Amino acid sequence: MLDEGTGPVLLLSAGIGLTPVLSMLHELAARDSDREIWWIHGVRCPREHPLAAETHALLTSLPHTHEHVFYSTATPEARRRTRAADGRLTKDKLVALSVPADATAYVCGPASFMADMQHALTAAGIDPARIHTELFGAMPSINPGLTGQAARTPHQPSGPPGTGPLVTFARSGISVTFPDSKPSVLELAVACDVPTRWSCGTGVCHTCTTLLLSGDIAYSPTPLEPPPDGHVLICCAQPSTDVVLDM
Q1: Shortest CA distance to 221 belongs to which of 240, 191, 201?
Q2: Cα(57)–Cα(205) distance, rounded to whole angstroms?
Q3: CA pseudo-torsion sign 212, 172, 77, 25
């Protein structure tokens, strides 16, 4: 939870770990905060950087902000276009930014990233009591009837690229163009080995209810009972626009 202080705020994330810190940025913008805000984010490339435009717009709406984005695998042209730094966000690169020692830091991302950044922030002079972390990882699968399945790293699906909207599986860190051959977001997730949660294929049971971070979806078939606001039933959902899902 964002503190009520007036000192500098450091929002530090990797991959889709930006989601919780982005909510804090929204809160600061809603307050018209005049605090010094540091936004530091690391990801592989622009294609795997959801909510980048939204983040940048919020930062430019506030008076005292610093935005630093690191792309570890982007092309020189992509980095130039987005004004991103080259390479993975490391302890040395963070210390080189000269973040204020009196900042309150909020760190979100994979466990190894958070451990590295905690060391870096401490080296930068920030009191460990003002470093707050949140582990961001995929939820465990619920796939009834499937046993003995070895876990695999999420990947692009086999076959030719799709022609539909871009589907970003936020926690798994991949974005996939929705293929014509897949009837639902769930089928696409399974094809990509993204951890999934389901126990039906008709939109009835709600085990597959998933938070929709951005975008719009349509249903086929229409579920008998709709999910809560801001959520989707992935077993019968198709993207109407580019979407970002919390999975």
Answers
A1: 201
A2: 38
A3: positive
- pTM here is 0.59
Rg (CA), the chain: 19
β-pairing verdict for 166-169 and 131-135: unpaired
Buried b vs exposed e over 46-80: b needs ≥16 C-beta within 10 Å?
Answer: bebbbbbeebbebbeebeebbbbbbbbebeeeebe
Backbone angles phi, psi at 139, to 5 degrees: -75, 155
Q: Which two tokens stand for residue 57?
A: 């717009």
- DSSP helix/strand/coil, 89: coil
Q: Is 147 helix (H, G, I), strand (E, B) or coil?
A: coil
Q: What is the pLDDT of residue 143?
A: 59
Say how far residue 9 (Cα) sits from the centre of its chain: 20
146: tokens are: 């499937």
CB 79 within 8 A of CB 52: no
Residue indicated by tokens 């993975």: 88
**Structural tokens at position 116:** 């590295």
Residue-wise pLDDT tens digits, 203-214: 557 888 888 878
Residues in the chain: 247
Instruction: Give the span between the Cα atoms of 162 and 157, in whole angstroms.
Output: 10
